[in-house]
Amino acid sequence: MALELVDIHKHFGRVRANDGVTLRVEAGELHGLLGENGAGKSTLMKVLSGFHEAGSGEISLDGELLALRSPRDAIEAGIGMLHQDPLVFLPFTVLDNFMLGSGTNDRGIAAEGLDELSDRFGFSFDHDTPVRRLTVGERQQLEIARLLWLGARVLILDEPTTGISASQREQLFATLKTLAAEGMIVVFVSHKLEEIEDLCDRVTVMRLGKVVGETRLPVPAEQLVEMMFGKIIAPTGRAGSSTGSTTLRLDDVVLGSGLLNTDATSLGVSEGEIIGLAGLEGSGQRLLLEACTGLLEPESGSIALGDKDMTGLAYRSYHEAGVHYLPAGRLEEGLVSGLTITEHFVLAAGASDFFVDWDAAADRAAALIEEFSIKGTPDSTAESLSGGNQQRLLLAMMPPHIRLLLMEHPTRGLDIESADWVWTQLLERRDHGTAVVFASADLDELLLYSDRILVFFAGRVIKELDARQTDGDQLGHLIGGRSVA
Amino acid sequence: MEELATIIATASPLVYAVVGETITEKAGVINLSLDGSIMLSAMAAFATSFITGSVWLGFLAAILVSAGIAALIAFSSIKLHLNQIAVGFVLTLLAADLASFLGDPYVGERAAHVEPWAIPGLSKIPVIGDVLFDHNLSVYGSYLVVIAAYWFIFRTKRGLELQGVGERPEAAFARGIPVNRLRYIYTIIGGGLVGMAGAAFSLDVKLGWRDGLTQNFGWIALAIVIFGGWHPIRGAIGCYLFGALQTLALKLQPVWPDLSQILPILPFALMIFTLLLVYLDWFRRLGDRHPGWRRLLASDPPSGIGRIFKRE
């Protein structure tokens, strides 16, 4: 059995997301689809799953030509897709999610099907839990089980490792290997080189809407990087950190949201220091960042910037004191969808005049687009930019002098080149005395750029580490809540 | 006892409207034209009954009018990508004015109305029989609609698909569900029930037609849908609560004659106040403490409500 895509074209307006893509995937092999953000991987897979209708091209499975006009056609042909953000219904129960769209009305049969598949792959579900309470990894497992139950012969996974824990990732990879070994066609879409290398037997690389190469794995990583980017990028090294006077000081700060309370935390951050916050998602990192930016008032304890006590002051006071926060939800919390790049720069500059000089604003935007190499025009809206370019826009919008920069997942979802660029910018700020505190789920990023790392577990800082004397294993164990001597 | 029976009867048109709008909103569409739809349907029902002498044809006319308005809202949002709130608001004004204009010849006339019919057997049950089963077909129909809607939405496969379409249209689409077709169907069905509300007013509860006969009941129905947490049974409870407030206001009129201007409006204000209570944190947490009641106590709107589903 083999899946064949021949000369697929898909355009969105003038953007050629897929420009004549031809791909052949054999059953029994784990096939990777690699490429940087915006290379056209997701579009191709959405065409394959019937989500988008292709402009032209042919798709055949097992020699049989398929007409995929809707996801229904794809499901009937045995093609199932796990979307990057699992398309589940959060308020519905596990079993309702499993059944929805399956065509059966018999809860007993559905429950049996779910249990059987769960047993096979070592998943565990309580049928009556609302899916909202499940982790992203568990939602994926539920979707995989559902697609298999519907009789999928082809399984597509679009960036499935974003936002799941390391152990869930291992379990996912084991599941995929089992499925491929059983003769399924598995397509694994990712922009992360290591994952493709870890998991796949064969890889197809896409760039700018086209296939640029295909090879059996393993091959040297440099060869894949060159295919992805056309050039080799040297990793940014760590410069010696200069530590001056204290920028931020937390004393016995206790934080609480409805869901999580943190223990008393104390922390001092010096000028030009980079602090990494490690831990599973939702272990208290976000609360700490929000407290440092004045968005969350501590229940007790004090926060000071330099010599000034900031406890209880509002976000605006922090902002004026030189604190800048870039949350993880770039489009949801950082940018305004519907507004153009020019309008964003005008907003960020603050109002001094009553009228806006739009010509000057557009010129300034064009200059900043050039300087920060944003792929877009002054008239591009925020939501039309890719994740990497949204992050570039956010960095371009930062005021020139910042004392304290707080970031959540600075490079999540970015390709290597963009991620590298982001850190070049951050390190430059650091060199000018800005203190940086960032939360990340990427261990390499934490180890490579931090001076010190705080490890969070269930609302508590369980360890403060010197990044230079720590390795990935130790950090990984700590994040999982296992203390290492 | 007599009061309870009155509450049940006077609330029955609202029950139709609330259940209809609940179904529509569950599918992710807001039909904001309720107030005008009910008015025009009430007028159409009365006029039809007056001309033909048939209550049945009166109800049918009312259903067709409101279903037609609902179809217009669905079309303008799904096909033309217009804002549902704006279209609904314009239609509510238009329909109300149209009712006032077209209904002028029928003001003060008498027409065939829904005849009382005690259900044999059931109406003889002590207490319950008098309260629930000594009314007419319009009132019994309102019970049926609540139960049928509850059963359909929460117990059937189609009902689950309906919820899915309103909750996350992209996910429903990914599962092969024809999102926009279902939205058309449920908006029109919901509209039909709203039409029955109009007929139940002019052919049963308020007997007759005059300008402004059902004014504000559409808005209160929209509020009760929210109070009801998009659940037909809780919505019906809201309707009966409102009916009780109305009856109470009526009873208090002779006690405080000075307040006779305010009392008829008071139930509307109190209903909005109750709506606020439902949104307080303690009420929301009740659902976490009693998982069995979670669905009845939850009050989150369908996430995809008012959002147009477009395939790229």
Q: How big is the Rg of chain A?
A: 24 Å
- As a percent range, the share of strand residues of chain B is under 5%
Arithmetic mean pLDDT of chain B: 91
The side-by-side strand order for the widest beta sheet of chain A comes to 6-7-8-3-9-10
Question: What number is the mean pLDDT of chain A?
Answer: 87
The shape of chain B is: globular
> Count of helical segments of chain A?
17
Low-confidence segments of chain A, given as residue ranges, are none
Of all chain pairs, the largest interface belongs to: A-B, 27 and 24 residues
- Oligomeric grouping of the chains: heterodimer
Number of separate structural domains of chain A: 3
Shape of chain A: globular
For the termini of chain B, the CA-CA separation is 58 Å
* Architecture (CATH level 2) name of the largest domain in chain A: 3-Layer(aba) Sandwich
How many beta-strand elements of chain B?
0
For the secondary structure, the number of strands of chain A is: 20
At the fourth level of CATH, the homologous superfamily of the largest domain in chain A is P-loop containing nucleotide triphosphate hydrolases
**Contiguous runs where pLDDT drops below 50 for at least 5 residues of chain B:** none
Which structural class fits the helix and strand makeup of chain A? alpha/beta
N to C succession of SSEs of chain B:
HHHHHHHHHHHHHH
What does this protein look like?
The complex is a heterodimer of chains A (485) and B (312). By secondary structure, chain A is α/β, with parallel strands linked by helices. Chain A is 34% helix and 25% strand. In chain A, strands 6-7-8-3-9-10 form a six-stranded mixed beta sheet, with helices on both faces. Chain A has a six-stranded mixed beta sheet with strand order 16-17-18-13-19-20, with helices on both faces. Chain A is globular, with a radius of gyration of 24 Å. Chain B has helices at 2-26, 34-52, 55-78, 84-102, 128-132, 137-155, 157-167, 169-174, 179-205, 217-227, 232-252, 266-278, 281-289, 294-297. The longest helix of chain B is centred in the middle third of the chain and has 27 residues, at 179-205. Chain B is mainly α and 312 residues long. The relative contact order of chain B is 0.20. In chain B, helix 2 (34-52) packs parallel to helix 4 (84-102), helix 6 (137-155) crosses helix 7 and helix 11 runs antiparallel to helix 12. Chain B has a domain at 2-214. The A-B interface holds A 12, 49, 51-52, 70-72, 75-76, 81, 83, 87-92, 96, 99-105, 128, 130 and B 156-157, 160-161, 163-164, 167-168, 170-178, 291, 294, 298, 300, 303, 311-312.
